[in-house]
Amino acid sequence: MSEQSPDVHALDPESFLEEVHSFEFWFHSVEGYLSGQTYGHRPDVHGAPLAPDERERLVTVLCNYCIGETAALEGASGLVAIAPNRHTKVFLATQVVDEGRHLEVLLHRLTDVGVHAPEAEIERRATRSLLQFKRRLLELVETRDWEAAIFAQNVILEAMEFTVFQTHARTADLVTREVLNGIVKDERRHMGFGENELGRRLKLTPHIRARLGEVKKELDHLVLESFEETLRALAVPAAERPELGRHYLEVVARLGFA
Amino acid sequence: MSTDPLLRDERKAEEEPRQRFILEDTGFDEVPAKYRRFYRKWKGPGDALAPNEVVCPVCKVVIRSTRELRVGDRVYCMPCMSRLVVARADDGTLEALVSY
Q1: Which of chain A's residues have a Cβ under 8 Å away from the Cβ of B35?
Q2: B57 contacts chain A (CB < 8 A)
Q3: Which of A127, A136, B16, B100 is the most exposed place for a label (fewest CB within 10 A)?
Q4: Can you give the pLDDT at residue A256?
Q5: Domain-located, residue A170
Q6: What's the total number of domains in chain A?
Q7: Interface test with chain B among A188, A240, A257, by most B beta carbons within 10 Å
Q8: B85 in A contact zone (CB under 8 Å)
Q9: CATH number at residue A223
């Protein structure tokens, strides 16, 4: 059967983009890793009870992940209206679904570990820098600044979440690990979409580079600060923390930002 | 004729027939079933790549082809939607560069 399947590398670029931006592609992709799961993990996987200090750290971290995911959910849904073409609109609709799922599984994990009022807990434990980032992202969406909003959301936020979630998953309890690994699989599409969309735009309209450079200067440190705090809270050794910055710096370097 | 030995080797390689590969599904589950055999998980810097494989620089998944890869080939990373071109890295290995 597998030898009958089409050679993906033989597709022409337009057909490739049409395929990967489609709801059809999204559905058959997520089916592979979400089918049979309950709230982002296999139903028969149960974590060992957490020590009080471990639980405390996990709650703080999950609360801040919820803020990032809410920012992406609100951002992506607003971006559907200003997306430049139908393929992009369809892709962003799939991202909205992904972000809604992320928020739901993270909230569920909070209740799993005994948080009775997750919304209030998130308010209480939110880092200021992440809230500020969320506010600015939504302003960019509201002012219909497509490139800046995609840069903030699908490059800055998604690239850093991709690294933080992977790093956290390596040491997390079993349930949290499965939840995060599932989210990382979705994030691959989101950050790839952001980098490629902006890469194409920058190639066609190089004059937007200066404006995006300003957005980068204003916003990337907010997310970086917040996630560095997260990694400290998770007791990730200092030697492994530069990885967070490195991945993000590789992305912006490919896009031509020093 | 070029005096650059690397370029000479590249040109010589171009003339030789390419090795073909039968791709098996390795359990990579992030793309629709019909495309799964073209990708596998990357196990980190120690992961030895076959002549038909390159790592996607965007999302760090191993991209696989049914034929031996050579400089200039176009490959796609479906998990992150990137179009890539195969190039020769400074250390002599093949790498994939994003083509926007």
Answers
A1: 5-6, 8
A2: yes
A3: B16
A4: 94
A5: yes
A6: 1
A7: A188
A8: no
A9: 1.20.1260.10
Residue A86 lies in a domain: yes
Residue A232 lies in a domain: yes
- Classify residue A112: in a domain, yes or no: yes
Alpha helix locations (H) across chain B? 5-15
Of A9, A20, A254, the CB nearest to B74: A9
**Each residue's pLDDT tens digit in chain A (258 positions)?**
444 578 999 999 999 999 999 999 999 999 999 999 999 999 999 988 899 999 999 999 999 999 999 999 999 999 999 999 999 999 999 999 999 999 999 999 999 999 999 999 999 999 999 999 999 999 999 999 999 999 999 999 999 899 899 989 999 999 999 999 999 999 999 999 999 999 999 999 999 999 999 999 999 888 888 878 888 888 888 777 777 778 888 999 999 997
Q: Cβ A11–B35 below 8 Å, yes or no?
A: no
The parent domain of residue A63 ranges over 50-254
Are A9 and B76 inside 8 Å of each other by CB? yes
Q: Name the closest residue on chain A to residue B74, using Cα atoms.
A: A9
Using a CB–CB cutoff of 8 Å, tell me whether B22 touches chain A: yes
Q: Write the ipTM.
A: 0.91
B24: chain A residues, CB-CB within 8 Å: 2
